[in-house]
Design the sequence.
């Protein structure tokens, strides 16, 4: 079993390597891949040093699976070349998510859609994954009509340049900037670029990916995505309107029985999800579960997850694990 990690020297790539190790993914050979400027660098995996190779070199080695986290342009150009060589690609960029010929997969929700013929599989956006881990079982039982979500997103979602910007601001140093304004002691209502409708791409990903993953174009969703000076994970305040009424205890029970979801909902004792406690964990945490008294059949939730793990690396590797389990690779 040969596994290529494309973007191995990046922030998500490094977490992919960590998760592959932690989950004892059954690989015989690791192929770390990165851009030309990183070729020849060494990375360590399970106590062994590996040399980073370029994309064509990786294709020539014919990996069974390629885990991509190298940006949309790289994925658009190279994922088909890997697929043509017989490699199954699991891509963490936005390149293929809304392609009608590609599956958009959160394993706990819709892995059953995958077949041996799927050679390029899309990993959803981090904020979408954690939200739908909670919403999918609720939609199945109560039928979601409308969702209003405000996100509080970690700077790690932007990348290492953003982390350096915040560190520089905290230490009073000048340096390269990822954002047009300071991020330390600040919040930016600006994740990704603005589109013609006034929403950012990040906000529209939540809309479009939710409908695709839940296979329901009737769900109405509106989002505001905000970047906050946090490194541990993304948080989301979610308001859901259902077609059917619900019992709060039934909601808590349903979510507590959902694989990959942990309910932390005891506000009287200051127990609720926070990015500082979700950091480096694979589960999605939900709390502040309460009825919206302003609207019938409506619920408020607070959802938190580590965006680099379940929001990216772990979900990608869970897809690869499913492919192995089903004998698709």
Sequence:
């Amino acid at each position: 079993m040969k596994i290529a990690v494309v973007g191995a020297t990046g922030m998500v790539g490094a977490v992919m390597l960590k998760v592959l190790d932690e989950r004892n993914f059954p690989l015989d050979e690791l192929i770390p891949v990165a851009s030309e400027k990183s070729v020849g660098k060494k990375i360590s995996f399970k106590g062994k040093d590996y040399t980073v190779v370029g994309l064509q070199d990786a294709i020539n080695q014919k990996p069974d699976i390629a885990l991509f986290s190298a940006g949309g342009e790289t994925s658009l150009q190279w994922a088909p070349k890997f697929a043509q060589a017989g490699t199954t690609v699991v891509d963490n960029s936005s390149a293929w998510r809304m392609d009608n010929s590609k599956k958009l997969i959160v394993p706990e929700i819709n892995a059953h859609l995958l077949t041996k013929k799927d050679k390029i599989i899309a990993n959803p956006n981090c904020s979408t994954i954690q939200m739908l881990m909670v919403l999918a079982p609720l939609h199945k039982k109560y039928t979601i009509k409308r969702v209003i979500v405000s996100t509080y997103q970690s700077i790690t979602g932007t990348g290492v340049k953003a982390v350096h910007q915040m560190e520089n601001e905290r230490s009073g140093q000048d340096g390269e900037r990822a954002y047009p304004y300071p991020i330390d002691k600040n919040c930016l209502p600006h994740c990704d670029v603005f589109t013609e409708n006034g929403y950012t791409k990040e906000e529209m990903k939540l809309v479009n990916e939710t409908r695709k993953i839940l296979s329901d174009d009737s769900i109405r969703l509106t989002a505001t995505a905000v970047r906050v000076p946090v490194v541990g994970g993304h948080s989301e305040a979610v308001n859901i309107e259902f077609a059917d009424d619900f019992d709060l205890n039934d909601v808590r029970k349903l979510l507590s029985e959902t694989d990959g979801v942990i309910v932390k909902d005891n506000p009287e004792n200051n127990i609720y999800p926070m990015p500082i406690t979700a950091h480096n964990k694979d589960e999605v945490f939900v709390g502040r579960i309460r009825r919206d008294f302003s609207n019938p059949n409506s619920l408020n939730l607070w959802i938190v997850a580590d965006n680099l793990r379940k929001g990216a690396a772990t979900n990608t590797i869970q897809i690869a694990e499913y492919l192995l389990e089903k004998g698709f690779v």
